[in-house]
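Data availability (excerpt). The following record was deposited with the supplementary files.
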Amino acid sequence: MARWEPNAPERLAQAALELFAERGYENTTVLDIAQRAGLAKSTFFRHFQDKREVLFREDALTGPLLAAIAASPAGAAPLEALARGLDALGLHVLKPERRDMAIRRRAVIDANLDLREREALKGVSLTAAIVRALEDRGASDLAATVAAELGALALQISYERWSDPAATADFGEIAAQAMDEVRAAASSL
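Predicted structure:
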């Protein structure tokens, strides 16, 4: 095995998704993943706590989303700041070349109850982080909470649509449409 090669986390994630598809999540070990990626087991643990974390890298979405919310113009309303955050995800994280991995990731999660629960917890954590980011921008607690919940809903809708194998549009385009739909639904209440 090579002592060092670039992109170890990405290679491990790719190997894990391949193995999860071939053998199933439960029948794949950390050692299997490391070997498929051509890396040592210790390299796996430098990047991930366990095989589940390959699917749930915490900062993959959170960092860019919160940075874009914080960088929104001072006068931007909470939902506008969130829309900018979703757009940033499309530009920097959920790019067209990552769609195939997202489709495979979603299939693995959908097939496993424990992973679906972990995905839901990740959503709760992300929503709480959005609330804090909006409050840091000056939104009231209630406004930040409502906007974060609506934004999290738009993100969930966007990700599900974008990771559908039949999807062809870019994430940013899908997210803008989802945000418009969420806003319209909320205003019709």
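Summary of structural features: The chain has a mean pLDDT of 93.
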